[in-house]
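Continuing the series of single-chain predictions for the mutant panel. This is the parent chain; the variants come on the following pages.
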Amino acid sequence: MEPNECYYTCYDSRVTAINTMDHRHYHHTQHLALKPSFLIPFAIIIGGIIVAIAVYASLPKGPVRGVGDASLVRGIDSTDHVFGNPTAKVIIVEYADFDCTYCKTFNETMHQLIANEGATGNVAWVFRHYPLLEIHPNALSHARAAECVAKVAGDDMFWKFETALFDNQPVDPANYGALAKGVGITGDAFAQCYANAAGVSSTVQPKILADRQNALDIGAKGTPYSVMLVTGKEPVIINGNYPYEEMRQMVNQALGN
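Parent structure:
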């Protein structure tokens, strides 16, 4: 990891850059007493060096555990969207929001991770919904559309549609039909599902809200928020948008490579 690396998360109440080690923002205010003019530039240089050293020392030098209780993650079942081998030694359960820009970047990272590290069958990815209702008014609608795609066309189409949602971010809900058609969905089943997805008789919205509640129960405060489940080891919380190389490093450590 580069020493100046920070990770990013879309928060429930705001979007902000965070340091995943302690979730603090670093602020520095210099208060200089009146000094002779020739000392001021020197004092500024020294002050800058001190601040740089302090910030460097505070940044994580490798993968760090996020905040939360990973033991509360819901067990993986047939209702989940699994990309890769469902019996893999390492399974990364991600809670994401389709309108979160950091989730879009992390989505690309995860696709790359599964294509490479997942090729051996040792790594899989589970996508769960965590719509940030407070800041993304269309996030719940996007999740309903994605679930309807899975319902009428299966998980392969779900993964194509979730990629289309991120690639075209932010998506206007009026364009769901065009996106669905673009990934290969035909007929009226998708439109009918989506029209009823928020109804009391539909299982679509309850599933989404159950995913969201599970994320909150674990301790998530933003997206992307993931839990890495490793056979025979303690789960690890991955809080934020980690780059590919860091994810690859964590996976390889978990596999003992």
